[in-house]
Design goal:
There is one protein chain. By secondary structure, this protein is α+β, with helices and mostly antiparallel strands. Helices cover 24% and strands 27% of the residues. A seven-stranded antiparallel sheet has the order 1-4-14-6-7-8-9, with no helix packed on it. It is globular, with a radius of gyration of 25 Å. The protein starts with a helix and ends with a helix. The structure holds calcium ion. Residues 53-278 form the L-type lectin-like domain.
Length: 358
């Protein structure tokens, strides 16, 4: 999505600049600047387009859901009210007091990954009379039923909540359904009464319920940066929901999904969960770490919001060094040169025109 936008920008910039005859030098400098900026941007990377090459089948759940079940060789098993059909996995039906979950049996040892979840939340309940939602997990433990959307509280790892029911009547500043993320080392409890607000890293409202079209969520974790995107408006593009740096998650945890209903209910369906490996280089120092020993945590600066524009991630000392700093300086320098050249040419033209008048 971002890639497409930046390409268009380059073309229009180039077209405009090439018409400016005498401004060849300025055009050259500007084109170089755009190129350098694009290069710099690509360092941060965009959400993947779902490149099948890097799809990890052992961590993915796809129709017709072969390998789902209780046999020793199965890669996914399930619990509770979960119903596996050939076209969807229903974690809960549209009935009261149901809980269900589905869990990958294979621990994930990828350092950088992106999970795309296709889901469907639908039911007969009218506005605000439905609940409670779905949670997507990357946790140390699996198949531990409990009160947090059908999974245990005081979990260890990452949770993304697709909360469809507003419990906190004081928190009217946000509309529901609300998507939020939480990282836990087992010490923090999820506060249902506040819809998890006290422990969330960030979130966004998204109309995910009773949609005619497909609805998707993407979770990317790479170099200490957690990015959540949603595609729920049938536009085939990702919209940013959460983007936060300084998140530490280990390898060797399990992916899962769970859902729960209470007095109010919904069908909570998972259509697919596709895990992609992200090809990211790490420094020797990072490679030598034992990633399975990392404790889930978040390096908050002041509040989660302050982390949002920090692109350096967890390994703060090593990422924004060397050639990246050089590129930043080069960009600034080129920017100044462009302004100076354009200014000089405009000044010269005015002088010439003034001469003609007098
Ligand atoms: Ca709630």
């Amino acid at each position: 999505m971002l890639e497409r936008t930046t390409t268009v920008m380059t073309v229009s910039c180039r077209g405009r600049l090439s018409k400016m005859g005498k401004l060849n030098f300025a055009a050259f400098v500007s084109t170089t600047l755009v190129f350098v900026l694009l290069q710099f941007r690509s360092v941060r990377g965009d959400i993947t387009d779902g490149n099948a090459e890097h799809l990890k089948r052992e961590h993915s759940l796809m129709k017709p859901y072969q390998g789902v079940g209780s046999s020793p060789s199965s890669q996914w098993d399930f619990w509770g009210s979960t119903l596996v059909t050939s076209s969807y996995i229903r974690l809960t039906p549209d009935e009261r007091s149901k809980q269900g979950s589905i869990w990958n049996t294979v621990p994930c040892y990828l350092k950088d990954w992106e999970m795309h979840v296709q889901f469907k939340v639908h039911g007969s309940g009218k506005k605000n009379l439905h609940g409670d939602g779905i949670a997507i997990w990357y946790t140390k433990d699996r198949l531990h039923p409990g009160p947090v959307f059908g999974n245990q509280d005081h979990f260890v790892g990452l949770a993304i909540f697709l909360d469809t029911f507003r419990n906190d009547l004081h928190g009217m500043d946000r509309s529901f359904p609300y998507i939020s993320a939480m990282v836990n080392n087992g010490t923090v409890g999820y506060d249902h009464g506040k819809d998890g607000r006290s422990s969330e890293l960030g979130g966004c409202s998204a109309e995910i319920r009773n949609r005619e079209h497909d609805t998707y969520l993407a979770i990317r974790y790479s170099k200490g940066r957690l990015t959540i995107m949603v595609d729920v408006d049938d536009k085939n593009e990702w919209k940013e929901c959460i983007d936060i740096a300084g998140v530490r998650l280990p390898t060797g945890y399990y992916f899962g999904a769970s859902a729960a209903t209470g007095d109010l209910s919904d069908n909570h369906d998972i259509i697919s969960m596709k895990l992609y490996q992200l090809m990211v280089e790490h420094t020797a120092e990072e490679e030598n770490l034992d990633w399975t020993k990392i404790e889930p945590s978040v390096n908050l600066l002041k509040s989660p919001k302050d982390n949002i524009d920090d692109p350096t991630g967890n390994f703060r000392g090593t990422t924004l060094t060397g050639w990246k700093v050089f590129l930043l300086l080069l960009c600034s320098l080129l920017g100044i040169v462009v302004c100076a050249v354009v200014g000089a040419v405009v000044f010269q033209k005015r002088q010439e025109r003034n001469k003609r008048f007098y």
